[in-house]
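User: quick one, sequence for these tokens?
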């Protein structure tokens, strides 16, 4: 045999040796398979192939050398964990005391009492309820259903606006029906949920736990009188109760309440202003105010001066500065303050006014009321632009 054939046979034998890994009982590798009394016919041979599933058990080494390898079936994969919200996902029954759990046949004197009972149950369990279908007969509610807020399917398909995925097909619900006595009875209660419950630490931020009480509303109203908005009110309340989680409401709740109040008083703001002036007049006869309305019964001219302003004018009214602001406010009215300087060189206010139009008639009316409020005492100098 020549040298080239010997080298070829030697390289073939080396290649076969490198492809073959024999796992025996003497191996100390942590990834090896321990065995005892291993025979040649029970040797497990592993080929360094790319796929980890190509693990071949051969009865003898000769079959492997001759490429007489039996077909290998892929390993069976474990079943995938179902996604949250799928039909196969069941998280189980929520933890709740038995006295707070609804039961089929439970009676309530009215529907509101039954819904309130289910809301309390949901708050303890850690999910948010939602009112669903209603059946009316002659204007009377005969059937009412409350469901979990994750009931139904996601509605993002086919829409340009992407909503937050909140519905996962949960079937938890409670149904009420009206009986002959006028009471309401639970006749269909499903307790199991297909999603995880909300933890107590995050439940304080959910909608059922966010309720503005009288203290919240009073602080928002009082701060608005001194030009502090809902954001400042929320931060002040947080400091008062020692933490955001103890506020009992979110910043959006504060903003929404302030918005609703402004929307409510928008149609009555002129009446409220005049009523405030009348109350000041009743408390202090020296308070002076006057107003006029236009043909559309809208407030067009307003002037006022309180007793402190009148006293300041009597002391420092030799020179008066008058400058109307631009009508950039919501009411399209210009603010017309009468100001001066005291003996400490600080600005003091003598009077104020609001005008819808900047014409000669409006300014004449404003100056006439100013002189009248100051006891017919004309200023020596008027500074204006």
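Assistant:
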């Amino acid at each position: 045999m020549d040298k080239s054939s010997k080298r070829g046979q030697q390289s073939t034998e080396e290649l076969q040796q490198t492809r073959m890994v024999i796992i025996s009982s003497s191996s100390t590798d942590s990834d090896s398979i321990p065995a005892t009394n291993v025979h040649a016919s029970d040797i497990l041979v592993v080929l360094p192939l790319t796929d980890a599933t190509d693990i071949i058990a051969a009865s003898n080494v000769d079959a492997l050398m001759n490429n007489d390898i039996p077909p290998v079936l892929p390993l069976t994969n474990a079943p995938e964990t179902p996604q949250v919200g799928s039909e196969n996902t069941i998280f189980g029954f929520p933890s709740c005391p038995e006295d707070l759990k609804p039961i089929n046949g439970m009676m309530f004197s009215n529907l509101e009492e039954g819904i309130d009972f289910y809301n309390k149950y949901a708050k303890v369990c850690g999910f948010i309820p939602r009112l669903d279908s209603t059946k009316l007969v002659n204007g009377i509610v005969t059937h009412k259903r409350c469901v979990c807020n994750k009931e139904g399917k996601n509605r993002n398909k086919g829409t340009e606006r992407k909503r937050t995925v909140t519905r996962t097909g949960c079937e938890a619900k409670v149904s009420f029906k009206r009986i002959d006595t006028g009471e309401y009875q639970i006749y269909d209660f499903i307790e199991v949920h297909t999603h995880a419950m909300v933890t107590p630490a995050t439940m304080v931020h959910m909608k059922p736990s966010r309720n503005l009480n009288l203290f919240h509303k009073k602080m928002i109203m009082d701060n608005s009188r001194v030009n502090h908005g809902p954001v400042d009110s929320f931060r002040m309340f947080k400091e008062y109760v020692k933490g955001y989680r103890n506020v009992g409401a979110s910043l959006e709740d504060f903003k929404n309440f302030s918005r609703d109040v402004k929307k409510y008083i928008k149609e009555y703001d002129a009446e409220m202003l005049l009523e405030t002036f009348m109350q000041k007049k009743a408390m202090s006869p020296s308070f002076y105010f006057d107003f006029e309305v236009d043909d559309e019964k809208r407030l067009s001219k307003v002037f006022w001066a309180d007793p402190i302003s009148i006293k300041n004018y009597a002391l420092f009214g030799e020179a008066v500065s008058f400058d109307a602001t631009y009508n950039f406010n919501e009411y399209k009215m210009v603010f017309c303050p009468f100001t001066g300087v005291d003996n400490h060189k600080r600005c003091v206010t003598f009077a104020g006014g609001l005008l819808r139009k900047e014409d000669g008639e409006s300014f004449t009316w404003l100056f006439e009321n100013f002189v009248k409020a100051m006891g017919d005492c004309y200023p020596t100098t008027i500074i204006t632009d």
